[in-house]
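wait is this the right file?? whatever heres the structure
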């Protein structure tokens, strides 16, 4: 099948690289390929691109340039923030996170727990919003870090981040409030300082930048141990030759995204609405988080009559790529930990599919895609 005929509705997994990002990546790789830590003219050229990009990327999130460290992606930034403060730590330090975090956070938190630290996994309500009372009770004078994602990657449901940060600071002003904003920044403009976010994880490939590049934001005043040891790159915070081309690609993607964000969001929101309306008119279904704040690009739908694995395969055959929103273990259909935390009825927990839109979504896509999904489901039931 021609790539152009295939309909991609899996932008939350990764979104195509923006042309400007690809061009910036290529140009940097060609013209400024030298090691940005070197002492000659070509290295200075790479270093200048790196620092200009850092300054621009920082400004997009209301941050200072020295609060930005480049990583290999969101997973590394989450692991770094959550795990390293517990290494060589013999105090009674605690960690609080939620049951609905991305695997990068859940697995990091489990690793901290395995080392003997107390870790609280706070539950959520049926819409996927963290139980605030339980969250508040879990914070105490030993809480070193709290980690709460801005918005969920499977459902798009947004957490009351500002309120949660205030709760944390009221109980323990020294606690670091971390937020995985990987999925949120795909369609939202965030100012970390205004939101009370002390550290954050960002991933380039969700915004239309290259894969393998990300950002760890850490507010001035906080220090965490290095995760990668070696050279003195990135203000001695992260060793390893910096992926300057990736950084330049990310900066270019962000520039285009920030310039067009209002129009992109309006279009995606409109097409998703049309898409959901058509499916609602034709089938018995539930849209996760329909009545609460959710990211405009994600539509997690529970179909009453059809299993998600079957539907996903049938849609693929009909030229639409979607995902269930969580990894399947060795072919077995393992229910999503997010939907489980939301206490979705076992009978329908494997009937959810995540349709996710993105910056390439066009006018008319909502109808077009819904009609194919409608036809596919009708063939199955
Ligand atoms: C919420 C969230 N956090 C973290 C990640 C991991 O980011 P990366 O692929 O850059 O490691 C993802 C990607 O799926 C995500 O959606």
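ok assuming it is, sequence goes like this
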């Amino acid at each position: 099948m021609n790539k152009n005929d295939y309909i991609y509705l899996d932008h939350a997994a990764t979104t195509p690289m923006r042309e400007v990002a690809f061009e910036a990546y290529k140009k940097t790789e060609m013209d400024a390929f030298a090691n940005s830590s070197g002492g000659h003219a070509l290295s200075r050229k790479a270093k200048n691109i790196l620092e200009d990009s850092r300054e621009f990327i920082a400004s997009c999130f209301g941050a200072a340039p020295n609060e930005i460290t480049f990583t290999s992606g969101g997973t590394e930034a989450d692991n770094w923030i959550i795990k390293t403060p517990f290494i060589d730590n013999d105090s009674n330090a605690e960690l609080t996170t939620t049951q609905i975090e991305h695997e990068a956070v859940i697995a990091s938190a489990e690793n901290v727990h395995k080392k003997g630290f107390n870790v609280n996994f706070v539950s959520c309500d049926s819409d996927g919003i963290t139980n605030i009372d339980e969250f508040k009770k879990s914070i105490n004078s030993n809480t070193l870090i709290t980690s709460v994602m801005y918005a969920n990657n499977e459902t798009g449901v947004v957490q009351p981040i500002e309120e949660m940060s205030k709760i944390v600071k009221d109980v323990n002003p020294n606690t670091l409030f971390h937020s995985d904003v990987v999925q949120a920044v795909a369609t939202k403009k965030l100012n970390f300082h205004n939101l009370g976010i002390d550290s954050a994880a960002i991933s380039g490939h969700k915004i239309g930048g290259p894969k393998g590049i990300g950002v760890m934001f850490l507010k001035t005043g906080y220090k965490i141990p290095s995760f990668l040891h070696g050279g003195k790159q990135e203000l001695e915070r992260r060793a390893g030759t910096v992926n300057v081309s990736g950084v330049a690609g990310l900066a270019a993607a962000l520039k285009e995204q920030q310039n067009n964000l209002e129009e992109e969001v309006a279009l995606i929101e409109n097409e998703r609405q049309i898409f959901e309306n058509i499916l609602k008119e034709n089938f018995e279904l539930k849209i996760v988080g329909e009545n609460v704040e959710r990211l405009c690009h994600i539509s997690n739908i529970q179909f009453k009559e059809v299993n998600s694995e079957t539907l996903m395969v049938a849609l693929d055959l009909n030229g639409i790529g979607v995902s269930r929103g969580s990894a399947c273990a060795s072919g077995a259909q393992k229910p999503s930990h997010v939907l489980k935390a939301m206490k979705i009825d076992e009978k329908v927990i494997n009937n959810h599919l995540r349709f996710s839109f993105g910056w390439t979504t066009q006018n008319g896509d909502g109808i077009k895609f819904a009609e194919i999904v409608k036809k596919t489901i009708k063939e199955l039931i």
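The mean pLDDT is 96. so i think its the right one actually
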